[in-house]
Amino acid sequence: MGCWICLPSRKAPYAYQRRKNKVDTERQRLKAKVVELHQAAGSRTIMGQLKQQGEPIGRYKVRRLMKETGLTSKQPGKHRYKPANKPSDIAGNHLDQQFTVEQPNQVWCGDVTDIWSKHPHSPALQTVTISPAKPGAFIYEPLKA
Q1: pTM given for the model
Q2: Cβ atoms of residues 102 and 83 within 8 Å
Q3: C-alpha to C-alpha distance for 35 and 46, rounded to whole angstroms
Q4: Helical H segments across the chain, by residue range
Q5: What is the number of H-type helices and E-type strands within the chain?
Q6: C-alpha–C-alpha distance, residues 49 and 84, integer Å
Q7: What is the pLDDT of residues 116-135, one digit of tens each?
């Protein structure tokens, strides 16, 4: 036989029923704010936005509110490069990954690089050429339009 102090109260189920049927206006207000702020954002972002608005709320409560309203966080997927299944139309693959050569000055490579500048109308494109005179030296030339 158990101790009478450890037994649950006979009124406990009825108190639960009264709490369950009562509408929590504060929770409804928070749900409305979460729905308003949700734009593919997760619980951490929404929590930060609510805290900026002066709402003291935690991440797990935001997560429960999102679950109750049926909101999910939709983050962009991982970027994947499309595998090349045909040769390039712009430049052919002449080296075919064979970078070793018998003599110097047989293979040359260059690069066209887009460099951001403060002035949008300045010539920002440059060509980079490997110098044949000095190995490891690069020549930067502005791209002529």
Answers
A1: 0.45
A2: no
A3: 10
A4: 12-21, 25-37, 43-52, 59-69
A5: 4, 3
A6: 43
A7: 666 655 555 555 555 555 55
